[in-house]
Amino acid sequence: MRNGYTDAIHACLGILENYDADKQFPVYGFGGKLPGQGAASHCFALNGDIFNPEMPGVDGVLRAYYESMKKVQLYGGTQFSSILSYANGFAGLNAMEMT
């Protein structure tokens, strides 16, 4: 099922994959109700493992996206602050490891 999101994944990761040595990408979702939860989550790992959200290459990311769409109920009123804060913290930790 091709859509705007899958087109964006192909376009962005198709380029980034060339510059990433291990070709592993952490993949998060936002604005969805996860199975067994009443409230919407604004930051969750698409593969279900928040501690190891990486997926191998474009195909792995797309696989995680398609699988999550079977389980996660999309929920309006998305708040980007949670996912941005998490990504910012993750980037800060990686920057410290590089020094």
Describe this structure in words.
The strands form three sheets. The chain has a two-stranded antiparallel sheet with strand order 1-5. It has a two-stranded antiparallel sheet with strand order 2-4. 12% of the residues are buried. The chain is of the alpha+beta class and 99 residues long. The chain starts with a helix and ends with a helix. The protein has one domain (4-98). It is globular. 46% of the residues lie in helices and 14% in strands. It is built from three helices and six strands. α1 (4-16) runs antiparallel to α2 (57-71). It has helices at 4-16, 57-71, 81-98; strands at 24-26, 28-29, 32-33, 44-45, 54-56, 73-74. The longest helix has 18 residues, at 81-98.
Outline the fold blueprint:
Elements: H1 4-16, E1 24-26, E2 28-29, E3 32-33, E4 44-45, E5 54-56, H2 57-71, E6 73-74, H3 81-98
Antiparallel strand pairs: 1-5, 2-4, 3-6
What fraction, in percent, of the residue positions are helical? 40-55%
Quote the beta fraction.
Answer: 5-15%
Instruction: Please state the average pLDDT score.
Output: 86
Shape verdict = globular
Distance N to C terminus: 42 Å
* Count of the separate structural domains: 1
Order of helices and strands: HEEEEEHEH
Number of helices: 3
Number of strands: 6
In the sheet with the most strands, the strands line up as 1-5
pLDDT < 50 stretches: none
Structural Rg: 14 Å
Largest sheet: 2 strands, antiparallel
What characteristics describe this protein?
99 residues; single chain; two-stranded antiparallel sheet; alpha+beta; 14% strand; 3 helices
